[in-house]
Write a structure and sequence with these properties.
Four copies of one chain form a homotetramer.
Chain A: E1 7-15, H1 20-30, E2 34-43, E3 48-56, H2 64-77, E4 81-86, E5 93-99, H3 104-114, E6 120-127, H4 133-138, E7 143-145, H5 153-166, E8 171-174, H6 183-188, E9 193-197, H7 209-216, E10 220-227, E11 237-244, H8 251-274, E12 278-281, E13 284-287
Parallel strand pairs in A: 5-6, 5-8, 6-7, 8-9
Antiparallel strand pairs in A: 1-3, 1-4, 2-3, 9-10, 10-11, 12-13
Helix pairs in contact in A: 3-8
Chain lengths: 289, 289, 289, 289
């Protein structure tokens, strides 16, 4: 697995112009890196350049800290948004998972994390209900209860944000969290909050998507993982998947079948995010998978 | 193949009550029929009974005409909507295909028809543009040109309806026909007009669904075949399917990939319709496949 | 959900002849049952009749025990293999799960069982390794360790069979159990042992299917749940599913992606089995889903 | 669409070492090219480097012929297998399609070709039966009849090869051609003959795969497009896809459903080939899609 090798990964987007690949590849070569995977895409309509490149750190002349410093001038020159991640770094990504009462998405993430599928620390779980505390305890992950009412919502969210800050959280996962986050929360984590919506967006936005699907009489249901923005269910889509249903499926069957989709689509979206395979532009994503 | 055997098929829906299956099976047995396939479903919420049953006509005591007459009293008693179709009847279903300029859906239907996949006569093709006349000629199917403007739309539709009536058309297929039918046309063919919409309904209703999908940045596109009702793109869904796309796909790629979906989903929907596998109730369908 | 209603389900196969559906439906009607779902299929090549019918026990004149006795003469007359199951019966199906070291299939079954997706008791877990005992403990399911060597295999299997008998086990699940069962074990549970094979059978039978798939360079991998017969990986197939792979996927990625398939395909196969939706004939299955 | 832009595409494989991407990107940049898409992959087990890069020829300093000459020394130095294709070149790829009696794959290719999906000339059709001559005539493509018997097979193949040579054919498509090509024919077109096999290889190799699938009782059938090598059905796989079947599907239904798969999988494989997206190594493929 490439994950086991000691690698560095650069993820970068910037205005397109001639010579970008040559410059970046030259930078890696000059310091002794061997490129393992490179995926590049230009949106010719928008004039935007997207790149993800991983190289073997075996024999690379720069340490983790040095490589960022060394790349900085080129990043500035390209007016790029960029990040360099090292597979063997000690500062792993730190996740917070927000849940309410449903356990299936949380279970799935915890189970996959235990198998090593996610290269990250699950630092804490936040919920507005106490129901999933035993599951958190079982995995020895701190569980923080923040009951939400109309009146206390803003204060509770501020406390949650303080907690996330103190814990150096960089990615927030809404694992069927049944509260809408307010704009100030969302803006604290641009492209850092991942939600699972239980429909094939943009179909069936809002509440009760399975009921909506049942009543419309569709033959396929879906799930969507996406980054959270101010507009509910309208953020950049990361991953989607579907499953067939028929007239024999009652609403409860849709919920049961959809549960499986939700688990998969959230887990796949999270893995793509943690592997730095996603670039957001406008309201869309480039996913290098 | 059941299609080759001499069979009769009863498709029926009615209010549910005890003993319906026993009565219908007894009717078939009494006259010497052997049931090959029976699929029954009750919507317990709505209290509705749906059934499709096919039996071998070998040794059956009633001829095609007689079987309908014999079943009539039971159908009346059950307050049922029902139809009995005979595989070896001379009075095949008669189709009209409405097209504009795109040929892919028409090609697909004509090709499959040539292979014997559709048990029906394609009686005629209607278009508002002359572009596909050569294709119709090649298959020796009468091609009728009805150019549509804002001014003449109602008159042209009336002429089309007269033509359809004269030709004993019972099923109308909108094979990427780029005109919205007016309510009077739609009402002349309740559950008899099949449309292909090039999106995963209810996502991206209305015009330019591929452009809408491209701009939204979805990771999957779809197509939907449905019966046409007065509300555009809101009729009962027959069949849906999807295909994956990525950031590498430009709008033209969506159109190209979607073209394949449209062909399949329309052809599958039409086949289900022609095999009397669909029962409409409210705005939904029971599909016995 | 039909599962919540008090229903009876008859699953039956026998030589085909006229009047079977009428007789069975009449039997249900006579005693006051209302049929909710009936699915019937005739294999006209083999002359075999397959049927699954569920009816509402509300107002049904016979109790659970009585219904079997009442149906017995008809079953005998039809030379049928049949079973009648009652949704609200106290004698639930009793499962034994056999595992080795991998936990993913076991986790999936336990989690779904906790959600109520399987209408059965998980009576015990058997393993040839101690690794999964903590997981069994956590769910408070008795865990029995039977280490297997070449020398002790027959004796250990006999002990396992005694245990299964004592515990009234009717279904055995091989959840990535890494031992081949000997014929005497298999014959004790005809169509009662369900295995998950981590390939799209009949491709890649035998050991290391992911390695075989990797080396062949396929673009899709699969998983298969099937009943166990004397011939390894050749029993009647219940369910299959697939996932796409590419040249970027190393062997470890195949294993990771396949793990998800195995979980789904085993769980779906088990659910179909527990809902009495499967009829085996020859080496094939009729699956009424 | 990239196809509309004037682009050059380099497809290359060679032993991996440091600096390859930098050197190639520098080559393109030096002559004024702007890279649109670059996909690179290293098989770290085998130590092999694979790359596909497309750049805009707008403002590029070298003409089509010159670019190959200019790249030659670098290709030699890297011990690479490589090809550079120009989107606006006059020397399009030239295809020969071999068929027998089934028309569905041929129809599909001709229809897509008419839509501009394949950037190639269909130079001729060869068949061992006269059945599809009318279809060839209709599309004004030369049709060559070479009836095959056990006795004349070698001579007929030699004549076919002469014809292919005279017509400068570079890609041969077996569109359900029902003859096995002899090794000398195959060796004349290494990685240049594409076959569609009507099963999910390696399952059901050899003759009558649908019958094999029907008898095995699988729940999913497939199709595979692959390059032809000396070992029947064992060449490098390009593309695969599947469709669900059930106990209701008779052998004829498998054939009908499979027909659709064959069309899609062959067409997708051919498109990938014509867009220079496939690199063969050993018995596997890298597909840059």
């Amino acid at each position: 697995m490439p994950e086991k090798t000691n690698t560095a990964t650069l993820l970068l987007s910037c205005p397109d112009h001639r010579g970008l690949v040559a410059r970046i590849a030259q930078f890696i070569f000059t310091h002794g890196g061997n490129i393992i995977d490179l995926d590049e895409h230009v949106d010719t309509n928008e004039g935007l350049f997207f790149l993800r490149v991983s190289w073997d750190m075996e024999g690379f002349a720069l340490s983790g800290e040095e490589v960022c410093n060394a790349f900085q001038p080129m990043g500035d020159e390209f007016q790029a948004q960029w990040i360099i991640k090292l597979s063997h770094a000690h500062d792993q990504r730190r996740l917070a998972i927000l849940v309410s009462k449903y356990d299936h998405c949380l279970q799935e993430i915890l189970w996959r994390h235990g198998l090593g599928e996610f290269d990250a620390d699950i630092a804490l779980i936040i919920s507005n209900h106490p129901d999933l505390k035993p599951l958190a305890d079982q995995h020895r992950i701190p569980f923080h209860l923040f009951p939400i009412t109309k009146e206390n919502k803003m204060q509770q969210e501020q406390k949650e944000l303080s907690l996330l800050k103190n814990e150096n959280i960089d990615t927030v996962i809404l694992a069927r969290y049944m509260q809408v986050l307010s704009p100030s929360f969302v803006q604290a984590y641009p492209n850092g909050i991942i939600n699972i919506h239980h429909s094939f967006l943009p179909a069936f936005m809002g509440g009760n998507p399975y009921k909506q699907a049942y009543e419309r009489g569709v033959k396929i249901i879906g799930a969507t993982s996406h980054y959270v923005t101010d507009n509910l269910d309208e953020g950049p889509i990361i991953e989607q998947d579907i499953i067939r249903i028929s007239h024999k499926d009652a609403l409860d069957d849709l919920i049961r079948k959809g549960r499986d989709l939700e688990r998969w689509v959230l887990a796949r979206g999270l893995r793509l995010h943690l592997q730095d395979r996603i670039l957001v532009y406008g309201n869309k994503t480039v996913v290098f998978d």
